[in-house]
Amino acid sequence: MDPLFDRFGRLVAWLRGDNIFDPEMNWVAFRSSGNLFSRTSVAWLGPVDGDTIYDRKGRPVALTDGATPDRRDTPVPPPRPASPLMPQRPLATTQHRRPTRPIPVNAPWSDLSWSQYVNQR
């Protein structure tokens, strides 16, 4: 399970396979065909490229330690996937590694906070 950090280096979520969990280990989003979708509404949130999550405008929202994202062209919304089965809830952890260095980004960060991002409709 990998921690996801926002532009300020704050832990905002956990990445486990194709699923995203908030810090309290609630399932909030899932990855399908290189895109992230809301667990509740199945709304498209934006593309995922490696360890970087982008908003609908192609700007990074969150990433794992060591990721170096670039700005992407404005992505095209994909077809809506079928809702996956609810994954098994991970064991809560209080340990996570902070980014080991400032997070370099070769583009402006998204204007959305993580909470605004995962609650898009």
TrEMBL record:
Segments for region (Disordered): 55-109
4-fold beta flower domain: residues covered: 2-118
Organism domain of life: Bacteria
Pfam short name (any one): Bflower
Pro residues compositional bias, start-end: 75-84
Annotated protein name in UniProt: 4-fold beta flower domain-containing protein
